[in-house]
Design brief:
The complex is a heterodimer of chains A (188) and B (306). Chain A contains three helices and nine strands. Chain A starts with a strand and ends with a strand. By secondary structure, chain B is an alpha/beta fold. Chain B folds into two domains: 139 residues, Aspartate/ornithine carbamoyltransferase (Rossmann fold), CATH 3.40.50.1370; 150 residues, Rossmann fold. Chain B contains twelve helices and nine strands. In chain B, strands 7-6-5-8-9 form a five-stranded parallel sheet, covered by helices on one side. A four-stranded parallel sheet of chain B has the order 2-1-3-4, sandwiched between helices. In chain B, helix 2 links the parallel strand 1 and strand 2. In chain B, helix 1 crosses helix 12 and helix 5 packs across helix 6. The C terminus of chain B is likely disordered. Classes of the chains: A alpha/beta (188), B alpha/beta (306). Chains A and B meet through helix 3 of A and helix 1 of B.
Chain lengths: 188, 306
């Protein structure tokens, strides 16, 4: 099936070989639609809602959610991007990518932040993101939206909005792109 | 260092520059690491910016100044370095009036050594922050015409800048009286001029160096006033510099000598940008050394590893 070189996202190097397509492009669109509705429902609208996409995979999810939200409510919520590389607990094992910029121009004091990411795995990225966001202000609430929850949590973190719950083996890799969600492995 | 090494550091510096603009400009990247500034010579900018950079990355800092140390009791540099390492320093940021001392200290210690200026030899992080400043304002150094004006002979900044600027594709012209040029410029990828007025209208960047009073007693210039008359950047001269050109100075400036006070606050002057970019560049350097899982090792000197 699909083969892609994994250049940016860790584990660095190697080639991702997809074994099964879990969601196709249409499935992703439907999941985004549903999550967008859930975000509006839970927050009684979009007042003070800010979407933050985590670099690099979450940015795409945040953009898709923003687009869906603006269609639903007529206004698009402010959006930002966050690179958590320098807040990680496994720093040094992952590269800091200059293209992965942090861009949060909106005031986060009192905001309801929805963190968007592609895959929720151990929860360590989200832990780092929570730390990083608190350097920008004191949000009223932080929620989490992920395209895929693949299990294997190592921290007490759970998502608020999930595109797809996907049981996986720890050795497997989940790849999310606008074309679809693939389950596979990385071959050297 | 190669062109791509420099470009990697400059690219990464954008990341750290953004951190500096956050409401809480601090990340936990280097928690538990210790950065020691070991300065055998005075400094305001280099030392403060390295310490600020280390703290913004949550590293601990240790500060050694020659004046207040046991050097005055006759303790050797080597013993001093070993003591600092024994206190747990992971990186030694070293400045010393003797050329090559960073390399020497690197042989004595397992800690990583960053050269923060060694005599008249090199000042690599200054060159990096200068390149970063110019790149930020001009997009790229490629094809820029840069004059470095003043006491080239004694300037480690000039030596490092020439290397970095030319490596990144700029054309460098050195402007100074013959006595303030190095005895030999063989192998330097530069052109030379003795006439600032002639060069100014052709420049993209005018980089001024500090004029030191000691040079008069050494007989290298007849008087500071004569130097200022021939090579000082005054308002009249600044008017002949193109509108989009930049004015740089590594500091500390002698207002009224190499640069007229009003010129230092000219809109084209990026002297304070250089200072604030110094923190971001040094964050990138410290992070690459300690936090990236890679080892630049002793080749942190600009000329190292070529």
């Amino acid at each position: 099936m699909v083969e892609k070189e994994r250049v940016q996202t860790p584990p660095k190097g190697g080639v991702f070989v997809a074994h099964a397509r879990v969601l196709d492009a249409e499935d992703i669109k439907r999941a985004i639609q549903r999550m967008a509705h859930e975000i509006v429902e839970r927050n009684h609208g979009l007042d003070n809602v800010v979407l933050i996409g985590l670099q690099t995979g979450g940015v795409m999810v945040a953009e898709m959610l923003t687009e869906a939200l603006s269609k639903i409510s007529g206004t698009s919520p402010p959006q930002g991007t966050l690179d958590v590389a320098l807040h990680r607990d496994d720093i040094g094992m992952r590269p800091v990518i200059p293209e992965a910029v942090t861009d949060i121009s909106v005031d986060l004091d009192g905001a309801t932040i929805v963190i968007a990411d592609d895959v929720l795995f151990t929860g360590r990225t989200i832990r780092a993101a929570l730390d990083a966001l608190c350097d920008f202000g004191r949000p009223k609430e932080i929620q989490l939206a992920v395209m895929v929850d693949r299990g294997h949590r190592e921290l007490p973190i759970r998502p608020d909005y999930v595109g797809k719950n996907l049981p996986t083996r720890i050795s497997e890799i989940v790849d999310v792109s606008p074309e679809g969600v693939d389950l596979g492995t990385v071959e050297k | 260092m190669t062109k791509s090494d420099i470009e990697e550091i400059l690219d990464l510096t954008d990341t750290f520059d953004e951190i500096g603009r956050r409401p809480i400009p601090k990340v936990p990247a280097l928690r538990g690491r210790t950065v020691a500034t070991v300065f055998f010579e005075n400094s305001t900018r280099t030392r403060l910016s390295f310490e600020t950079a280390a703290r913004r990355l949550s590293a601990d800092t240790m500060s050694f100044g020659a004046g207040s140390s046991s050097l005055s009791k006759g303790e050797s540099i080597r013993d001093t370095v070993e003591v600092i390492e024994a206190y747990g320093a992971d990186v030694l940021v070293v400045r010393h009036p003797a050329a090559g001392i960073a390399q020497r200290i690197d042989n004595w210690t397992d800690a990583l050594v960053v050269n923060a200026g060694d005599g008249c030899h090199e000042h690599p992080t200054q060159a990096l922050l200068d390149a970063y400043t110019l790149r930020k304002h001009k997009g790229s150094l490629n094809g820029l015409r840069i004059a470095i004006v003043g006491d080239i002979r004694h300037s480690r900044v000039a030596r490092s800048d020439v290397l970095a600027f030319t490596m990144l594709g700029a054309e460098v012209v050195l402007v100074a009286p013959p006595t303030l040029l190095p005895p030999s410029l063989e192998g330097w990828p530069v052109t030379i001029s003795y006439d600032l007025d002639e060069v100014l209208p052709t420049l993209d960047v005018c980089y001024l160096l500090r004029m030191q009073n000691e040079r008069i007693s050494e007989g290298l210039i007849p008087s500071v006033r004569e130097y200022t008359a021939d090579y000082g950047l005054n308002i009249k001269r600044a008017a002949t510099l193109p509108k989009d050109a930049l004015i740089c100075h590594p500091g500390p400036t002698n207002r009224g000598i190499e640069i007229e006070a009003a010129v230092a606050s000219d809109p084209r002057s990026v002297i304070l940008d250089q200072v604030s970019n110094g923190v971001s560049i040094r964050m990138a350097v410290l992070f690459l050394l300690l936090g990236s899982g890679r080892n630049l090792g002793a080749t942190s000197e600009l000329e190292g590893g070529q």
